[in-house]
Known about the structure:
This protein is mostly helical. Helix content is 81%, strand content 0%.
Amino acid sequence: MAEKSGRNRSIDELTAEIAQSRERVTRDLRGLRYEVDFAAKFRRSFREQTISWLTTAAAVGALVALAPMRKKKLVETGFALAVLKIAANMVRPVVVEFLKNRLTDFGRQPRRKK
Length: 114
């Protein structure tokens, strides 16, 4: 078969090329599985951005609870929630840094004996 293609490759070269191709396909398939694993992405995102997720959940809950109200109230609430989201996004790095510093300082302090 190799002789008919015009290429003078040995069987070992063709076997090596097939093995490399299989490795590439396996690697690409692993990458695809990683990209499509939405449950793991959601868990990681929730772990890394817990405050944002909880804030968003509270905002959606408030929106659902207030939906039956008049449209004017809904628009006001939507505007208030948008402002709250922007404020939360601006304050979040400060809060995270503060908590990180407090927790690392707490871990460094020697225990007091009573």
